[in-house]
Amino acid sequence: MKNMDWSSLLIRMSKGDEEAFRTVYEETRDHAYRLIYYLSSSKEDVGDIMSEVYIELLRSADKYRPEQPFFAWFNGLIVRQVRNWKRRNWRLYRIVEKVKLLADHSFDRKAEAKLSAVGDQIELLPILRKLPLKAREVIVLRYYQDCSLEEISTLLDIPLGTVKSRHHHALKQLRRQFEEIHGGKEKKDYVY
């Protein structure tokens, strides 16, 4: 890498200078790509994580301190974004598993296998977007931000009982929407 004045570039970036961002991007993209490629568990995610890294770089540019080596700081930023990506994927998996658990437990193994197979492929974001905002807030804070129900109560400035109620109803709505995706076929497999 060229001997860059990273501090001034990042200061300019934090003030909205697009040319400074372009320069930083051009000088760091190959490095960032390689590091993300080696750290991520899914090579298909590298492009998305790369975008997250540069979004976070824009947000964090004013936090860089000139006394620290730029690439050490930038590597830390990359590692955190890869971890965040993995954590988000894990939360998505947990939500799917929670929806499965809340599904009627009285169905047979054939229906369970179908539910499991579909659950592995489900795209939850469109389903989450169908939830009312108050329910979506609780689900996102609980499973994407890993907040406890007590923390959600504090964040939203609502009673803990209200959080628990919204959480319960949101999971029921997710389960209902999950079942609707699969139509009547799977419902025939349920044993009532």
Oligomer: single chain
Low-pLDDT windows of residues: 114-122, 184-192
- Described by the principal axes of the CA atoms, the overall outline is elongated
Strand content: under 5%
CATH architecture of the largest domain: Orthogonal Bundle
Number of strands: 0
Number of spatially distinct domains? 2
What is the tally of helical segments?
10
CATH class of the largest domain: Mainly Alpha
Order of helices and strands: HHHHHHHHHH
Task: Characterize the main sheet.
Answer: none
CATH topology annotation of the largest domain: Arc Repressor Mutant, subunit A
State the fourth-level CATH superfamily of the largest domain.
Winged helix-like DNA-binding domain superfamily/Winged helix DNA-binding domain
Distance between the termini: 67 Å
Mean pLDDT: 78
Tell me the radius of gyration: 22 Å
Structural class: mainly alpha
Give the % helix: over 70%
Describe what this molecule looks like in 3D.
It contains ten helices and no strands. The chain has 192 residues and is mainly α. The chain folds into two domains: 6-87, RNA polymerase sigma factor, region 2, helix turn helix motif (Rna Polymerase Sigma Factor, Chain: A); 103-188, Orthogonal Bundle (Arc Repressor Mutant, subunit A), CATH 1.10.10. The chain is elongated.
